[in-house]
Specification:
Blueprint (H helix, E strand, L loop, with lengths): L35 E2 L10 H7 L13 H12 L1 E5 L4 E4 L10 E7 L8 E6 L4 E7 L3 H7 L4 H4 L3 E7 L2 H7 L3 H22 L2 E3 L7 H8 L7 E10 L2
Antiparallel strand pairs: 1-6, 2-3, 4-5, 4-7, 5-6, 7-9, 8-9
Helix pairs in contact: 1-6, 2-6, 3-7, 5-6
Pfam families: Nitroreductase
Protein name: Nitroreductase
Organism: Thermosipho africanus (strain TCF52B)
Length: 236
């Protein structure tokens, strides 16, 4: 089947990239004038083997709020910056990415996090903080955008990963799309493991209305688009 070609390697076909043309590398993330600083944390100390054995998709959450320290840890675990070089043009994160291109922005739809107003936020990884996108209770809208999946709106927070394809296209052209799909899996698996280590639950969601999710988060659906999401909540 022609569509299965996406799954195959075409690395030998990579040529005439914007990188080779000397075009400037795209920024690793958008800046924010007013950043809500996230707290330090000392969490996630459960043994790795135990975490892997316990890891599973969980769709039932309690009404217990998530702490800001827990949210800080989960954001660091999924897109945290370990170090950077070349005047912050190249970053090394807590997850792998093809050519260190890291083509994702992390948005949060917050419902029940201590110290945070309900609303939509964007993670600013270089400052380990949050940028408020818009306040409000978006429970009904995100349930609608995820095709009626009620458990998404019953979480404490929904992680929404937005792909910014050009960050990878700049280096890998047409082979970028397979790489982006692989990379977002790395990110979500780290969320599963990190959430499990602090007695939270999550469940990856790939079934959603693209236009509604893009509109909810506030991206154009062309240069930036929602690619994956995962609600997180406290569990018994």
């Amino acid at each position: 089947m022609k569509s299965r070609e996406f799954l195959k390697s075409n690395w030998r076909q990579i040529k005439n990239t914007d990188r080779e043309k000397g075009i400037e590398k795209p920024e690793i993330e958008k800046d924010c004038e007013k950043v809500i600083k996230l707290p330090e944390f000392n969490l996630g100390n459960k043994p790795l083997r135990e975490v892997i054995e316990e890891r599973k998709s969980i769709r039932k959450y309690t009404d217990t709020p998530m702490s800001l320290q827990e949210l800080s840890f989960l954001l660091w675990a999924t897109q945290g910056v370990r170090k950077y070089i070349q005047d912050k043009k190249v970053v090394f994160r807590t997850v792998p990415s093809a050519g260190a291109t890291h083509p994702f922005d992390t948005y949060l739809v917050v419902f029940n996090v201590d110290g945070l107003e309900k609303g939509i936020y964007r993670y600013v990884s270089l400052k380990h903080g949050l940028c408020k996108v818009k306040p409000g209770d978006f429970k009904d809208k995100i349930i609608d955008a995820t095709l009626g999946q009620q458990f998404v709106g019953n979480s404490a927070v929904v992680f929404v990963w937005v792909a910014v394809p050009y960050r990878t296209e700049w280096k890998y052209t047409a082979e970028s799309y397979k790489a982006i799909a692989i990379d977002v899996g790395h990110v979500c698996q780290n969320l599963y493991l990190a959430a499990t280590s602090i007695d939270c639950g999550t469940c990856a969601v790939a079934a959603y209305d693209q236009e509604k999710m893009d509109n909810l988060i506030g991206v154009d659906g062309d240069n930036e688009m929602v690619i994956y999401l995962a609600p997180v909540g406290k569990i018994v």
